[in-house]
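Dear colleagues,

For the upcoming journal club I promised to circulate an example of a predicted protein-ligand complex. I picked one with 4'-deoxy-4'-aminopyridoxal-5'-phosphate because it came up in last month's discussion. The inputs are reproduced below in full, followed by the predicted structure.
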Amino acid sequence: MSWEDGVRRVVPYVPGEQPKQAGIIKLNTNECPYPPAPGVRRALDKLDCGSMRLYPDPESGELVKALAEYYGLSERQVFVGVGSDDVLAMAFLTFFNTGKPILFPDITYSFYDVWADLFRIPYERLPLDEDFRIRTEDYADRECGGIVIANPNAPTGILLSLSEVERIVSANRDVVVIVDEAYIDFGGESALPLLEKYENLLVVQTCSKSRAMAGMRIGFAFGREKLIGYLSDCRFSFNSYPMNRPALAAGTAAIKEDAYFREICDKIIETRERVKGELKELGFSFADSRTNFVFAAHERVPAREIFKMLKEKGIYVRYFAKPRIDNHLRITIGTDEEMDRLIAVLREYLGKQ
Ligand code: PMP
C-alpha cells in the first residue's frame, strides 16, 4: 500500500495555448478580439485597493442583481461562478448523482468527460450524425442520469433550434438537462424562455466570449429557484467566496452596458459571415457556424499541415487530434484586420500546394 493508492487520479483538460510572444494573431481559444465595455474600465478604476483586505460578498449580490434585471428573472434564479467552467463543474457535482450514465455528444466541449471522470459520473457519448448535427431523437426516452448539451455546439459551431432543445428537455423531465450556451449571443436563440415550463433545466452562459472578459473568469447560470438553491448549497459547501471583488465589479458593469455588448456581437457576426465566403473560395468547407469561430476542413490539404504553417507565421488556430475531427481547424473570429491577414496567408500557401 502506498500513499499513491489513495490519490484521485484524473487526466486533466488541456486548454488552448496562451503564447507569450507579442505580435501573434490569436485565433485559438475563442476569445473576443475587442476590449470589454468602457464601463468595465471605469468600474475597475473605482476599485479601492484597501477594500481587498475584506472578503467579497459571498452572495455576489450586485452581479446577481444585474443579471436578474437584464434577463428578466428573479435573483434566486441566478447563479454565478468563476467562468462557466466553474459553473458547469458545480452543476455536474450537484445534479448528476444517480449512478446512471449521463449523455452528451461524441463531439462536444471536451471538458464534459473530464468533469465526469473527476466526479466518477458514468457517461455515454452519443454520436453526432455525419454532418456533425446532434440527433435530438437519440436523447428522447433514454434512461440516463442527466444530459449536457452545448448549444451552439463546440467545436462544430452548429445551433439547435429552441424547439429541438425543448424536445430534449421535455423528454427528460426526471433528470437535469444542462444547456451550455457559451456562444449563444452570436446568433442563437437561448433556452431561457423554457424555464417557465421546465424545472429540470439549467442554462449556462459566460462573460468570456460575447462580453469580452475571458480574463476575468465570470460565468453564470439560470434555472428555477429550487434547482439554483441546490446548486448554491453545493457551491457554499466548497467555497464561500468564489467571485473576487474585481470580477464582481467588472461583471456588473459589463452586464449593464447592453449597447456595447450588442455592437461587438453584431461586428463579430458580420466578420464571421464575410470570412465564411472567403474561406469557401479558398476550398474550405464547414457547417453553418452560429458562434465566434468556424470549424473548417480543406478540400486538399490536411488540417494538421495548415495548422503548423499558420503557427510558423504567428497565427494560432486550434487543432484537435481526435477521431472524426482531425482534419478540421477551429478558427476564432478576430478583428477584420486579423482575418484579412489569415486569409492572405492561407491564399498564398494554398496557391502553392
Ligand atoms: N463551454 C464551452 C462550450 C466552451 O467552449 C467554453 C470555453 N472554453 C466554456 C464552456 C468555458 O468558458 P469559460 O469558463 O471561460 O466561461
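Two points we might discuss: The chain has two domains: 15-35+259-351, 38-256. The mean pLDDT is 97.

See you all on Thursday,
B. R.
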